[in-house]
Design brief:
This protein is 69% helix and 5% strand. The protein is built from 20 helices and two strands. A hairpin with a 2-residue loop joins strand 1 and strand 2. The two termini are 41 Å apart.
Amino acid sequence: MSVISSTIGQPSFYTHFHLATEGTPGYARTSNLIGAANGLNCAGSAFGAVLTAWSADKFGRKAGIQIGSMFSIVGAALCAASVDMGMFLVARFIAGIGVGYSLSGWIGFGCYFLSASGSQSSFPWRFPLAFQAAPALLLLAGTPWLPETPRWLLSHGRAHDAHSVLQRLHHQPGAAHQTVAEKEFYQMTKQLEMDREIWRQLEKEGGGGMFELFRTRSNRKRAWVGFSLMFGNIFTGSIVIANYGVLLYASLGLGAYKPLLLSALWVTVSFPGNVFTAFFVDRIGRRFFLLTGLFGIVITLCFEAALQARYLESTNAAGQRAAVFFLFLFIFFWSTFVDASQYLYLSEIFPTHLRSQGVALGMVGLYTAAVVILVAGPIALDVIKWKFFLVLILPTSLHWVNVYCLFPETKNRSLEDINVAFGEEVAVKYYGAGTEEEEIYAKALAEAEAQGGKASAAVEVGEKDGLADMTRVEDVEKTPR
């Protein structure tokens, strides 16, 4: 989505589509069209999330990645080839279905100098848009080597393959027995059996189906947590800075190539923060990361609003540079504590049979908020200016309270164990297993060893009306097919 920040920083983009630039008559129409382009992109993303909810259950999680990649490729090609604003808006919608980020910021920065040299070519804005297809092509090319998720395999009658994937993921060189893989596989099979019994009961009572996500108290809590997490995170303003950073930096007295340079830097400095998350979120915890990040963002937004209120239309360069600093402090808190953590948390709080629908609901929340804030963003920055940051402070503060009060910790738990945090039963505990659970695991592992390389109690499942349907329990050979 944030490739638009590079696009609107190219003079040739305005020239090609006959758009007024900032500070000139007719810019109100320009800001409306920029907002519409981003709004349609987010609307396409929301549609893509709903499509993924169906395709991920029907064809597998890996197939969902492949479908999204293909939409990204087609959308990037259409955006880059747009001959008028109508085609560009439609192309942004298609690109949104397979939304993704790339290095287009730096490419846009480099392309700027072609326009600065006096060239009237449309290459500076077309090429960064086309480059969006490159990461999608790489992702699509790499999917044959991605394993399908073991829980989806298990729920679709492929227990053998699910067991094989778990062994690969938990492989311990030199170990005689893959104990971690065996324990998780046993827990998965028993949990699937319990879930299937619940589904049978729901079907008898006329429940289940597409509204199961909202039927029980625990599922309603999950739905709220997932939706509000992604919706609230967008209202921190991260997507506004990512998409309209060029406009922000220009309003703070920076001209020529500098807005594009800072916009590219802003996205780039998020990388170390996400790496930090990868190494420490499992040790420290999701709640700590989210609460720390949101608190830091609120403080940052307060300083940004105060500085822009004082120095936005002044000649005080030092004050304006301080405002730029707090935009970069924002990305420190966002990337280090919130960005990657939100997707991790969203994907793990739903049970297997509702995961794709739950994640889709969360992403619809993200893109719904994005439509609102991105359509309003360029207009607000043009009309109410620094007061727009005041609009972001209140919802971000309320979101912090929401996370503190309602979001349970999920670190170091298996996906089945997380059910306990939402008030549901687990067939057999893995996280915090007591003596009884350890005895159950020991017995199951002993049975598997006694059978000479077979995993006991594996389930075969089939499909019935698009839902996992357990048909029988039988031993499955552990040797990969």
